[in-house]
Amino acid sequence: MLLAIDAGNSYIKLALFDGPTLVKYGRHPNGTDVRQSFLADVDAAVIGSVVPASTPALINMVRSLYNVDAYVPTSKDPAGIDVDYDPPGTLGIDRLADAVAAAHIAGAPVIAVDMGTATTFNVVSHSLPFREGAGVGRPRFIGGAIAPGVGVLSEVLSSRAAQLPPVEMSRPPSVIAGNSIHALQSGLFYGYASMVDGMVRRLQAELGVDSCPVIATGGGAVAELIAACPSVTQVEPYLTLHGLRLLYEARV
Question: CA-CA to 114 of 20 to 30 Å: which in 48, 70, 226, 236?
Answer without folding.
Answer: 70
